[in-house]
Amino acid sequence: MASKVAALMWASGAGSVRSPIVTPVGEECQNPLAHPFPLPDLLDALSEATATAGEDSSRYALGCLLIKEGRDGHEVVATDGRQVLIRGGFRLPWAGEVLVRSSPIFEARELPRDRPWSIGRADSHVALRCSPWTLHLEVQADARFPRVDMAFPAPDAATSRLRLDPAAAAFLIDALGRLPGADSPNAPVTVDLNGHAAVRARGSSEGPATELVLARSGFTGTPVRFQSNREFLARAARLGFPGLEVVAPASPIVCRDGPRAYAWQPLDVESAIGPADDVVRIESDSQVQPAPYRPSEWPVGVRRSGDMNAGPARRPLPVEGPAEVRVADPDAPGLAGLIGEAEALHRSLTEARSRAGRLVVALRRHRRRERLVEATLASLRQLKLRDVAGQAFPPGFPTPPDRRRTAPCP
After folding, report:
1. For residues 87-122, b (16+ Cβ closer than 10 Å) or e, as one string?
2. 125 and 230, same domain (yes or no)
3. Whole domain around residue 11: which residue ranges?
4. Are residues 98 and 242 located together in one domain of the fold?
5. Taking the model in full, what pTM does it have?
6. pLDDT value at position 327?
């Protein structure tokens, strides 16, 4: 084999890095480099797994990717301790499992995606080839990887299932980063499946929450409300998962789609945001108008938020409370305008509440003063003014005659 095959530029956290891709001398891979094995999706799987991996801990090699045998071929597995991604369906020419380092090289644009890659394994390296590129991934023989299978409950254990409409998923990806509270620790949002699918967030504990209603999405099972890191929820939508499964508010949230699976740990359910009358509500249908689903596309028993009738006509979700935000005009502003309007409304409501509080204090003071004046007047009416006036004249001074007993002058 040639000692140096190619060199590649890629971006990392420290900037641009130039790394030679070398072929280990004196090692032979097991079959595949001599007999090409097409794997068009493996590079994308390794790239997605690298985005999921974290940093090594004292116990586990979380910065590694596990390639192991699964139920349907080999799987690529990655985790950072809070989220787990599995992508399977690969037929690799070796048995068992192997652990390799994650690398940003898998995201390089220079690597071809429109041609098949070949893969093989030696004792110390896993080799991938797509002429003129050859990548060698060092096997981490002494590293330990956590047992992530425990993070995935059995599919029949789910008590609630959300089915995301594709247009609502695109709306959710764009909106989650704009919701209030994005700078808070863990960037929490509340997912509420009860009558309709809603996502809520609040910037402060005192202000009203902002709610995204995922129109034309549905759920089956029991109503549930859980708290989640918004980045994990957005990533599930970006990865194209059609929905999610919930066993309990404190159990891992799971997404499944054929040979792919994604799970993450929810946040404390005690901090979940419940429904309120003053919520600032934005519906996904106010920005996008997806084509209606055919009845055959919906599983039996699925409840849909929004219009419950088949056909192109849609009724907007009924909204209660004065803080409703609804755009029915097709020329209405996009999501950025809606979020800006919601933030402006939030500030206006906060100022109005502050002014109302000051007004209430002033009215209470005025009412106390009125009561004091009324009490003083009532006390004065009860005084015997004649007795007081008689006691005020000195001795020997003639008192005024009683006008009621004196006859009028002729």
Report:
1. bbbbebebeeebbbbbbebbbbeebeeeeebbbbbb
2. no
3. 4-149
4. no
5. 0.65
6. 38
